[in-house]
Design a protein that fits this description.
- The protein has about 190 residues and is of the alpha/beta class.
- The chain is built from 5 helices and 8 strands.
- The strands form 2 sheets. The protein has a 6-stranded parallel beta sheet, sandwiched between helices. The chain has a two-stranded parallel ribbon with strand order 5-7.
- It starts with a strand and ends with a helix.
- The relative contact order is 0.17.
Length: about 190
């Protein structure tokens, strides 16, 4: 099984979202061949989002399974990709949004900070901070009664402004995501 893992940076990713780099290293150390996590997004994941998403859809059309992890604007990209995947009739076993932003939304009816996933997503392991620019929350989209969603708010000290930067490096976040990824990969290999 070809599993494509994505760890998408947030804004200023090469400086502020480096927790995604470390998480990808950890995931690649514990996952089998046929599964690889790549860091993407640079300093602004919005710049190449369309072409990046098209590449993922092309891989999925050839049978690849995508596990999408993102921090801040990268979390927003992950949650928008969930809708794009649904529109193209693809499912994702796991999406991990880490501190999506509080001023945007992918909800059917726009509500700042509200992010929704459809039933094409099996599981969400989400985390949010208590500080701007994060604090976005994940909810099931209307009619979705099947997605398993955990959306945990963490009280983390912030080493630098703006807030929310330390959450991408949190051992709590990394451990939960690694456990979720290894569980999903184990289930995929069993099938």
């Amino acid at each position: 099984m070809n599993i494509i893992g994505v760890c998408r940076h947030g804004l200023g990713g090469d400086f502020y979202s480096t927790g995604m780099d470390r998480l990808a290293e950890k995931l690649n150390a514990v996952t089998p061949s046929g599964c690889h996590f790549t860091v993407s997004g640079g300093n602004d994941p919005r710049i190449d989002e369309t072409s990046f998403d098209q590449g993922l859809l092309a891989a999925m059309s050839k049978g690849a399974v995508v596990i999408y992890i993102g921090h801040s604007l990268g979390a927003d990209a992950a949650l928008r990709f969930c809708q794009l995947a649904a529109a193209n009739k693809f499912n994702l076993p796991l999406v991990c949004p880490v501190d999506p932003v509080s001023w945007d939304s992918n909800a059917a009816q726009f509500v700042a900070g509200r992010w929704e996933v459809g039933s094409n997503i099996a599981r969400v392991i989400g985390f949010l901070s208590t500080a701007f620019p994060g604090e976005g929350r994940v909810y099931p989209a209307a009619g979705n009664t099947t997605t398993q969603i955990s959306d945990t708010q963490l009280q983390l000290p912030h080493a630098t402004l703006p807030g929310g930067l330390d959450i991408a490096s949190s051992p709590i976040v990394h451990d939960a995501i690694i456990a979720g990824v290894t569980d999903v990969i184990g289930n995929i290999q069993i099938v």
